[in-house]
């Protein structure tokens, strides 16, 4: 029976694989079972974030050395740049092992890759459908039938660069935007809508080209999408609960309505057995395996009735502001900031908010 | 008997005085009693933050129009730049009126100005002493005898620019630093130590030139200092409790040990009658008049055992990261982000943490 | 007979009017004749550039004090933010006086204001037409009949903020973009096309909504447009040559094909009598009264066959890169950097290049 | 007889080695002879510039693949981050081959590595001496006896991070600065003084700890130093002229007194046979093999009598401003921007200026 294990490992730099090598050497992690690695790396999380590429090179090097080229290429590497505020750079390593049947249902992991997009498909309906197809494939891989059992879908999606736009131009194709930074938002948007489509959260007929990146009433409460310069396809990881899996880990999720809306997360923690009034005390904090969240500045420039300045700041991208802020609000609840807060939550939770998944160890 | 009133007013831009004009027109605020205005303005909070100068010009214009030049010049204007994360730009207007004796002791306000510093005194013992003298003057102005009754001291202090350094050079004087950004930190540091000296929190013999901006074991738990390009002296405002004052407002303070340490603030809220397990619900939130806090990145690059990247980020100043993050953690507790989080907390609370004062309306 | 005088005055800060007061006090400038002031101020030149607002407040204060409210309001204040690289913040003050008939034709100045735009007109054909109408009015004001005699048209145009977008939303109107930074580009683009339309440089039928900000084959070689948060209409200043004017000043212009294309500027200098092989020597440099230029990163990511990274940098806006770079290339020719290089040259010169006007004193 | 060849290769990303692979495959470059690669990569050139680390990984991978581990480790990789303005990311590959005796004297190349510094030695006299020793070793390697025949010395030196500072703290050692960004400047400063000491340009008795990074009257006209996070020792490359070498390449250098001082560079070009009045025309431009320059903002905040704002800008580092600006002034002379302008020119040329070396192909 498959067992999911999750290892959270601190990173001293974007290419620091020492911690990962150590848990492998100590026999705590069998590299053969690695299905995905989520990284929070310390770049700007935007177009010219080379911390992600550096991390991918370093992790790939380790995996190829350990597993060989072919198997290494099957591991989903999802690097989310940006550790603003007090966030700690770290890796979250997802491992699938065969084990004796234990507590079940339990955390289940599935994954899929999609083919490459053409630059002109990015941010359009074609991308939504490609992604929805990929999510369904990843659910099958996780042995999850009911979309209600899916608690988090992480997708790494592509972006446009000046050169990719030029390539489309050369073929006479029209891209959805010529602004490279904006292309990241459109790609995240289309990918999130693809998740919502696959999970039945959104009426597919409403997802038109025009709605992508503009109709914020359409959203998935379990989507997390990050854009990166290093790929033109999508890497998809589904996390959920399945009776076909066993093990010590449980997962649940919440949707924050805005960057301060931590009470739904507190409620999710309570459902998982961590029921506390204030900040998690160290004993309970230690049972937190991973916090996976999306953050975003609201498009109307307001937060609970007051003005915020994130979208009018031309020196710092709104995504960087939002990550720092939500790392603070969630960190105030959890008690540390080695958490995964990913920026750019277009169609991922309501406008200005975002989904949060929590993976915990069941109480001994 | 003096009565302190505090008005928190949203600002649509750094020169938006419409809200202030409105409360005056509505008779809710008598401009003759204005002693100080704290502003959170939306610049970068660093050397080239012109939002502060713009705010000072706009507020001064309004005050001169209303009160005349002489009286307007006596109002302490403390503009703290930087509304990172979801923080809302706003004014906090402190008013002193004579009223019938009511609930007492109550919030008391005092203020003082110091003479101008020479550029070469900035960041040195001479600045510490000048500030301590000013704090004592402001306490007398507030009718507070016991330093334990002081809960917050806000100081606006000067910084060096390339031209001020050149002026010192021309006289053969040596400045403490030639790095303009660093001069802001040194000025805040010396001012905070001056507060600690005046309040008896720090042994004066330990405050040497070398300790300023480097010996982080020296700190005040009630100091808040901001540097600005627009002055060469100091504007000092003392907030505390005095039996010589009456009125509906109460104040208390807490010290955060780090950017996530919100439980001491929760305890301060409880002492003020706002005792809740999670986030303040709207009914209690409405009794919050002002939250005044300092935020800072720890100098050892760690937060609760994990690495943070704030001090290694050359694109965004650590003070901007820290403000965004602490606005999130405090906002998660309070329930909104129209709060005053000021960056650069050198010697203001322990390294990586900072003081937080809360002013509330007593329950009806 | 009207005489145009131009005063270039260094600024120590965005609100430094001391130099201007000094030339007035010295009788070198009669404030009654001030028609326009162009400022290079030291903000980021983007949405949250408060150096422009601060400058406008300071200059307006001086003008109102000197000329009274009504006359002060007629002076065109065009503040262009961003003094990247070695550029020097300064004011260029345009004065129109009546004088004895001297050398003629000579530099002529005209101006106009347009009514306010609705947010939803920004970046669309309606803005183009409003601007073209305004340029024609400014030409009449300058007594210039032939568009070939116009050498520079400076326009200050509006931008969208989160709040202006919300205002349009509230009316059910659709804005051209919801990205505030991008709105600056669209507004500059539509204004530049309006100039090109008025000067007969562009076939009006080609200027559709879709072409604005995207069809870079449409451009004016004499347009300079800057967007600012402080207005919703347009301030238009036309500079050219007219036989109806006399005086010591001459003007010519060149079009740079890219940011390094300084030879056409050298040729314009030669036409104005400053004919030198290398950098202008100090004697000739002193005859330069003003250099007014536009700079921009090319949209294809290439400069003379090599890749540039300006449009892929998410930490620094491409407009800031381009201003710094062109300030270097033009400064290398002129010999100093107290020049006016304004960013965002959409439809102002060919893609990646921009117009440059030079005003010189005729040789004694 | 040794022959030096230099290959300038465009880079599409920090890890783009395709161009290098291509010239090797085409037989134009024999990898066995590679002694050094200088890279201009597109990061911020500051503490958190991961483009350099990524480039080093990519180039190292290629070299190890081609040459084996041991030989690859001997190649000096000097990655200078920051391609502001229109600068083009590129590699400059230095190759040493044995060839038939041709034109001589000719360009000669030498190199050396120093041992690792302790963090507390950085920015102090100990670093100066270590570097001077290394420069002498590199001159011997280049067969250059007379320091006057040295035209450029490139050094990659270390910087401090929060963690390296903590390591020194743990040993009770005191670092020269706790500000990681400032540590880059101190390291470049000490390294430049080490070059000046080795070349006899600076009186060694004047190089005290206090003078490093502060007495700008001490400088080398041939030093170029860059700080990087990826090493704790120094990589030193000396370029000059030696009668022991032959080949088609020549080198000379100039010192710019400020960022606009291009006439000395024009004079150096003339000495090398490229004698033109304006910008180099394409025919002559093609003979330019490499332009290697340093750029810096002057510490007094002035450029040719006017104020610059580079050192007062807290959003963009002065080093980034200076690189963009000097790329413009030099690019305006040379005619393209695939040049190597490296920031942070402490003690490298006079304050605000910097050395420039030019390598050209002798006319056929």
From TrEMBL, chains A, B, C, D:
<dbReference type="InterPro" id="IPR043008">
    <property type="entry name" value="AtzD/Barbiturase_RUA"/>
</dbReference>
<comment type="function">
    <text>Responsible for the hydrolysis of cyanuric acid, an intermediate formed during catabolism of s-triazine based compounds in herbicides such as atrazine and polymers such as melamine. Catalyzes the hydrolytic opening of the s-triazine ring of cyanuric acid (2,4,6-trihydroxy-s-triazine) to yield carbon dioxide and carboxybiuret, which spontaneously decarboxylates to biuret.</text>
</comment>
<feature type="binding site">
    <location>
        <position position="52"/>
    </location>
    <ligand>
        <name>substrate</name>
    </ligand>
</feature>
<feature type="active site">
    <location>
        <position position="156"/>
    </location>
</feature>
<feature type="binding site">
    <location>
        <position position="353"/>
    </location>
    <ligand>
        <name>Mg(2+)</name>
    </ligand>
</feature>
<feature type="binding site">
    <location>
        <position position="296"/>
    </location>
    <ligand>
        <name>Mg(2+)</name>
    </ligand>
</feature>
<dbReference type="Pfam" id="PF09663">
    <property type="entry name" value="Amido_AtzD_TrzD"/>
</dbReference>
<dbReference type="InterPro" id="IPR014086">
    <property type="entry name" value="AtzD/Barbiturase"/>
</dbReference>
<feature type="site" description="Important for substrate specificity">
    <location>
        <position position="319"/>
    </location>
</feature>
<feature type="binding site">
    <location>
        <position position="349"/>
    </location>
    <ligand>
        <name>Mg(2+)</name>
    </ligand>
</feature>
<keyword id="KW-0460">Magnesium</keyword>
<keyword id="KW-0378">Hydrolase</keyword>
<feature type="binding site">
    <location>
        <position position="323"/>
    </location>
    <ligand>
        <name>substrate</name>
    </ligand>
</feature>
<keyword id="KW-0479">Metal-binding</keyword>
<feature type="binding site">
    <location>
        <begin position="342"/>
        <end position="343"/>
    </location>
    <ligand>
        <name>substrate</name>
    </ligand>
</feature>
<feature type="binding site">
    <location>
        <position position="345"/>
    </location>
    <ligand>
        <name>Mg(2+)</name>
    </ligand>
</feature>
<comment type="pathway">
    <text>Xenobiotic degradation; atrazine degradation; biuret from cyanurate: step 1/1.</text>
</comment>
<feature type="active site" description="Nucleophile">
    <location>
        <position position="226"/>
    </location>
</feature>
<feature type="binding site">
    <location>
        <position position="350"/>
    </location>
    <ligand>
        <name>Mg(2+)</name>
    </ligand>
</feature>
<feature type="binding site">
    <location>
        <position position="348"/>
    </location>
    <ligand>
        <name>Mg(2+)</name>
    </ligand>
</feature>
<feature type="binding site">
    <location>
        <begin position="226"/>
        <end position="227"/>
    </location>
    <ligand>
        <name>substrate</name>
    </ligand>
</feature>
<feature type="region of interest" description="RU C">
    <location>
        <begin position="249"/>
        <end position="364"/>
    </location>
</feature>
<protein>
    <recommendedName>
        <fullName>Cyanuric acid amidohydrolase</fullName>
        <ecNumber>3.5.2.15</ecNumber>
    </recommendedName>
</protein>
<feature type="binding site">
    <location>
        <begin position="80"/>
        <end position="81"/>
    </location>
    <ligand>
        <name>substrate</name>
    </ligand>
</feature>
<dbReference type="InterPro" id="IPR043007">
    <property type="entry name" value="AtzD/Barbiturase_RUC"/>
</dbReference>
<feature type="binding site">
    <location>
        <position position="188"/>
    </location>
    <ligand>
        <name>substrate</name>
    </ligand>
</feature>
<dbReference type="InterPro" id="IPR043006">
    <property type="entry name" value="AtzD/Barbiturase_RUB"/>
</dbReference>
<feature type="region of interest" description="RU A">
    <location>
        <begin position="1"/>
        <end position="100"/>
    </location>
</feature>
<comment type="similarity">
    <text>Belongs to the cyclic amide hydrolase (CyAH) family.</text>
</comment>
<comment type="subunit">
    <text>Homotetramer.</text>
</comment>
